[in-house]
Amino acid sequence: MKTSATPVKTTAPKPAVKAAETPAVPTLASRLAAVTTAKSINYYPVDGSWTWMWMHWDPNRIDADLAKAAALGADNVRIIIFPTTFGWPKPYDGYQQRLAQFVNMAAARGMTVKFTLFDWWNGYNEVQNSIDWANTVLKRYRDDKRVLSVELQNEFNAGNSAAVAWARKMVPAMRSSFPTMPLTFSVDGTSGAPGMAKIKTALASTPIDYYDFHMYGNSERALSIIQNARATVAPYPMVIGETGLNTLQNTEGEQAAYLGRVFEAAKAAGVRSVAPWTLNDFATGSIPSSAVSRIPAQYNFGLHRVDGSAKPAAAAVKAGWTGAAMPASLMDPSFEAGVNQTPWRAYMPELGLAVKTQSMARTGKWSVSLTNTGKTSAGSPSYRVSPIAPVKAGQKWHGEVWARGNATTGTTQIALSWFDAGDKWLGGASSNWLPNGTVGWTKLVVDGVAPAGSASLQVHLKSGANTGTVWFDDAVISVS
């Protein structure tokens, strides 16, 4: 359905960085090389996301957000262009001007742009209108090096025969019109490598240039997941076009560790472009009425909160983009992180809840305690975390923690547990026990080698069948 275009503000905010002169005409190879190394961020404004980004156009806010992304190290931004907003079957000039203004603002911040087309759209029977619409939107960027690639549809469903028939005509049409523009499709966050394999098979006669993997799987097994996805689409290049963790159902510390693991695993797997979803959280009511807007977690994937302040994840992403070491604070080794800021979480809390406390600390102000715990054949309650470093078979892992007890009984240890790509437990290693009774700070140490098939590791600070109280502090986890 057509809607009237709203007035367009054509004056861009004054850029903080002077835009570079228009570069030489790109080639398919040069664009593809830039795609596979892009430090990309997925972007919508905090108060006007999805289609409302374009309808409630706010160039000043957008420019400020681009500056924030560039400060983290981003050099590319992915934006989504909606046919029903931009005008269908003929794009409105006003919205095309807004798109051009966005590209200019990004360039002024030293950033290129990736376009995603045909989101929130399923008119697969309208092939010629689709070709004409895409040609109109893209024609001014045919030889514009500031635009790196075109994703023909977000999270393409290769199980939809109508969608596949449409794609088989769209790919060669776009290739003819824009021969130097890399073309791609992404896979949704739950289909994973099998979903990309379906796209590859469905489009074997009209192949795309690279694959866009949306990584929302278990980050503890990120290396295995990414390696599998990359092997599935070989010999074509692959990028991680979306990844992240919401902070409604998880702590901000878990989000930061999640992104740290994905960046480190991608580097180990040879995937050089990782794009977090998304720069900002979204304000209540800022997502247009849709299936997305009815999912509360969708509002909380941002690297920045609604008030603009950075979450810990921003530091992890900055390290990933700039090549710096991941911040040691991601692991919260001495449990000094604030409320909601730690990646550690309670395990089997029904048998005894691990809690942070200031009643006893070896260093700093905080430790973690377990009191009056149970124990079953399934295990003991603990405080657990997974490392940031990717997990592979044959690695030598070392863990240590300081513990002290008051009238303790049972078994108190630090333990390592390895799992395969299917989350099957492969084995573990445990430290010596903390002596029972009342004892001062004692170092517990565990060493072990990751067994064949290892894809993830969990570190547990555990205490079972303990009628007293134990405190843990200053945990160290390392690999060689």
**Average pLDDT over all residues:** 95
Integer-rounded radius of gyration: 25 Å
Total DSSP E strands? 19
Largest sheet: 5 strands, parallel
Shape designation? elongated
Percentage of helical residues? Answer: 25-40%
- Kindly report the spatial arrangement of strands forming the biggest sheet: 1-2-3-4-5
Number of helices: 11
What is the straight-line distance between the termini? Answer: 59 Å
Give the arrangement of secondary structure elements.
Elements (H helix, E strand, L loop, with lengths): L27 H8 L4 E3 L8 H5 L3 H14 L3 E5 L2 H4 L6 H16 L3 E5 L10 H12 L8 E5 L9 H17 L5 E2 L1 E2 L4 H11 L8 E5 L6 H12 L4 E6 L8 H18 L4 E3 L35 H11 L22 E3 L7 E3 L9 E5 L10 E4 L10 E13 L2 E9 L5 E6 L6 E13 L6 E9 L4 E11 L1
Parallel strand pairs: 1-2, 2-3, 3-4, 4-5, 6-7, 7-8, 8-9
Antiparallel strand pairs: 10-13, 11-12, 12-19, 13-18, 14-17, 14-19, 15-16, 15-18
3D structure, described in words:
This protein has 480 residues and is an alpha/beta fold. Helix content is 27%, strand content 23%. The chain has helices at residues 28-35, 51-55, 59-72, 83-86, 93-108, 127-138, 161-177, 192-202, 222-233, 252-269, 312-322, and strands at 40-42, 76-80, 112-116, 147-151, 183-184, 186-187, 211-215, 238-243, 274-276, 345-347, 355-357, 367-371, 382-385, 396-408, 411-419, 425-430, 437-449, 456-464, 469-479. The chain has a five-stranded parallel β-sheet with strand order 1-2-3-4-5. Strands 10-13-18-15-16 form a five-stranded antiparallel β-sheet, with no helix packed on it. A hairpin with a 5-residue loop joins strand 15 and strand 16 (425-430). Helix 6 (127-138) runs parallel beside helix 7 (161-177) and helix 9 crosses helix 10 (252-269). The longest helix is centred in the middle third of the chain and has 18 residues, at 252-269. Mean pLDDT is 95; it is low at 1-22.
